[in-house]
Design brief:
The protein is an alpha+beta fold. The chain folds into two domains: about 40 residues, Winged helix-like DNA-binding domain superfamily/Winged helix DNA-binding domain (Arc Repressor Mutant, subunit A), CATH 1.10.10; about 80 residues, Lrp/AsnC effector binding domain/regulation of amino acid metabolism (RAM) domain (Alpha-Beta Plaits). Helices cover about 35% and strands about 20% of the residues. The protein is built from five helices and four strands; from the N terminus they run H-H-H-E-H-E-E-H-E. A four-stranded antiparallel sheet has the order 2-3-1-4. The longest helix is centred in the N-terminal third of the chain and has 13 residues. The model has no long low-confidence stretch (mean pLDDT about 95). One of its GO terms (cellular component) is cytosol. GO terms for molecular function: sequence-specific DNA binding. InterPro entries: ArsR-like_HTH, AsnC-type_HTH_dom, Dimeric_a/b-barrel, Tscrpt_reg_AsnC-like, Tscrpt_reg_AsnC/Lrp_C, WH-like_DNA-bd_sf, WH_DNA-bd_sf.
């Protein structure tokens, strides 16, 4: 699906406030409510975006965020990524070029939970050569907005 300026405007307003009504968005961008509704439905069908609830980890008892970079045995990257998907602590898994083959973002209640995860869970996954554990000390920005305001 190729997005046009109207789609981008709709996305921009939804990213500011995902609870905005179709009629409110239509007034902002000067198109009919039906146009907004059909555009949103089409973008949802084409997986351009999805409606989600972004929870503040600290407010639900997850006080430790870790970014963990892995070096993997050749040929094991996909298997390791699939193994990591089973853990509810893991929010993000990606393959990267550079120093680490895989990088994950994971959330934990406390440092002890992180240490247990590394020493008990990660240690049992075949193919992990090393894990570079980085704990967030201070957060400056956390955004899921990828659309530039039109």
């Amino acid at each position: 699906m190729k997005l046009d300026q109207t789609d981008m405007k709709i996305l921009s307003y939804l990213q500011e406030n995902g609870k905005r009504s179709y009629s409110e968005i239509s007034r902002y961008i000067d198109v009919s409510e039906g146009t907004v509704r059909s555009r949103i439905n089409k973008m949802l069908e084409n997986e351009v975006f999805e409606f989600i609830i972004h929870t503040n980890p600290n407010k639900v008892g997850l006080y430790v965020q870790a970014i963990i970079g892995f070096s993997t045995k050749l040929g094991e990257q996909d298997n390791i990524a699939k193994s990591l998907q089973q853990f509810p602590e893991v929010r993000f898994i990606g393959a990267f070029s550079g120093k680490h083959d895989l990088i994950i973002q994971a959330y934990f209640e406390d440092n002890d939970s992180l240490v247990r995860f590394v020493n008990e869970e990660l240690a049992h996954i075949d193919g992990i050569v090393s894990a570079d554990v980085n704990v967030e000390l201070k957060q400056y920005k956390d955004s899921f907005s990828y659309v530039i305001r039109q």
